[in-house]
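As noted in the main text, all predictions were made from sequence alone. Below is one such record, for adenosine deaminase.
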Amino acid sequence: MLSPAEQLPARLPRGLLRDLPKVCLHDHLDGALRPATVVELAAAAGHRLPVDEPGALGRWMRTSAGSGSLERYLETFEHTVAVMQTPEALVRCAREYVEDLVADGVVHAEVRWAPEQHTAGGLSMAEAVEAVRLGLSEGVLAAEDAGHIVSVTQILCAMRQGDRSLEVARLVVDNRDRGVVAFDLAGPEDGFPPSRHRAALELLADELIPVTLHAGEAAGVASIRDALATGRALRLGHGVRIAEDIDIDLAGDVAVVDLGRTAQWVRDRGIALEVCPTSNLQTGAVAAFGDRPDQHPVDMLYRTGFTVTISPDNRLMSGTTVTDELALLVVHFGYGLEDLERLQRNAAEAAFLPLEDRSALDGLITEGFEGLYA
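Prediction:
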């Protein structure tokens, strides 16, 4: 079977999609490692991998992640997290992450990760955050020296099933002027609601720190509502199961859209959905709608006025990039340049950046799409 990139129409070749300026809001650092890097770091750390050849490891990751279960998907992180326990490893992974963004045409990214998972080698969470900051800075400076514009900020995650969210929230506050822009809850969604982390979320609200929470991936509309009400989330990580709160009836050639209260709140207030199509299909997040790319509700959400953004989630496990995710939309939903530009503007507007920086980002998008509509 041909990949979406191989099915692209001549008017939108993959090279053009790659070169378009893109904004990435939902990208996990521990899910973005290069297979060769995992192999090298595992050998240095004495960590045993299921396979130790980069190509085979990449295939194993994609197969395991494509099981249809979020829990099985998350198991693949055992190996990436295990090799990210030293300052040197974190610096390298962060620097290479920026290099891969540049190769993908991304001009701004907000990379998220959970510091509490990177202390097994003796690092404090603060030291881990500093190592990632250093690696990102090295990558950005190298990109600038090579003539590329890219900015990268950090979103710190606390694990839903853990008990360190207040520590992580304080770490976000402490690093708000050092490239950390927001807080997230990651890990098993079902059974671990934001209300378990009320103290952390209240601290963040008091400090006026933005929050984006994983919601509407492994659990449904009630989880999204809790993220909004308890978590005060300004964006939703994935959020695709908001589609379960929407009814569409066809009356002849006219579609009548009926939004539930939660869906209406999300749409009308422009709360951005951080949609990751390939990952959603792998984890079964959109199983209620089907298991094929053309059955993903992303297009329905986009057409009915939701603030949809597109990200890869985990580049290694999903074998994807932002370019690949856009190619999927072009092939399966017929998206054109206007749609792709709208998606990038949505992401730029939703980025956790000052207004002046978001305006500059919007200018980069305008410049990148200019002259392509002829």
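The chain has one domain: 11-363. The CA atoms of residues 17 and 350 lie 21 Å apart. These features were considered when defining construct boundaries for the mutagenesis experiments described in Section 2.9.
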